[in-house]
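Q: I'm writing up a methods section and want to include an example of the input and output format. Could you take the sequence below and give the corresponding predicted structure tokens, formatted cleanly so I can copy it straight into the document?
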Amino acid sequence: MSAQYYYPEGYRSILNLKETELAIATIKQFFQTYLSAQLKLRRVTAPLFLEAGTGVNDDLNGIEKPVSFTPKGMEGTTAEIPQSLAKWKRMMLGDYKIPTGYGLYTDMNAIRPDEEPDNLHSYYVDQWDWERSISVEQRNLEFLKDAVRKIYATLVATEFTVYENYPTITPILPENITFIQTEELCKMYPDLDPTERESLVAKQYGAVFVIGIGHDLSDGKPHDGRAPDYDDWSTETEGGFHGLNGDILLWNPVLERTFELSSMGIRVSVDVLKRQLNIRGCEERAELMFHKRLLNGDFPESIGGGIGQSRLCMFLLRKAHIGEVQASLWPLELREKCLKNSIELM
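A: Here is the clean output for your methods example:
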């Protein structure tokens, strides 16, 4: 069993199972409605599986294997369960001809069999995937920060809605989110690993957006892995730092650790895609359907990301385990330990 499992001493869920189910429905409805208004997004229907070999499925860090099968009557074709819809969304912006300043969002349900389950991770992933068309001039750090602020404002508003419905769950989020570059963190804490750096800054500020994930830092290592074909992590920004992407991190007082809620960023342009494929040594991807279309100019410039639905509910309802807000599979030993520690898994 993963050593990352954590059982808070004296933990008791604030809401029972029935109250939790009702609260989840309230959170999801409010958050997606508010977010779509903030970012000017319309809801679209997402696929549950994609055709393999097209380059559309997200390969995450490049080592995770998607669940796949051969559809009956389509011998020779392999279907894959999406690991995320990062590239599919951008393709839809082009295919749906969504103009600059507007976008889409969808409910993404994924299976990640290589995930190492713990308090925050499950084989089942549910998130709001969103994407918005932007202009070439908006490919800059300030525009990225503005989008982050709108998402964070949605989060704060949702936390207040939870408080209005369940007064025993008092708001804890700071009024504003703090921005910090991964290179800054690297120089501030050169003897710590990225996870330890995130933990310190998240605990200090309560809510942070860590900018620049994927490019090597001054210590010769990236803060974390990112695929080369959706987020722009190699564009130089002010101060000599790299990247137009990042993660929204919160401090979770129940688990006493940093808590990633969202990964997002400005997407690769034609030039950036070529550069990042070269950096990662995977230029052959340029021959895949998605990459050919992007290089051909079929898709607009865009910004997008994913926001964990179960993660959001877990944080706002002060739960100790993601299994308290989603139905998934867990090892028997874990279920028994959760039961002994007053953690009721769905």
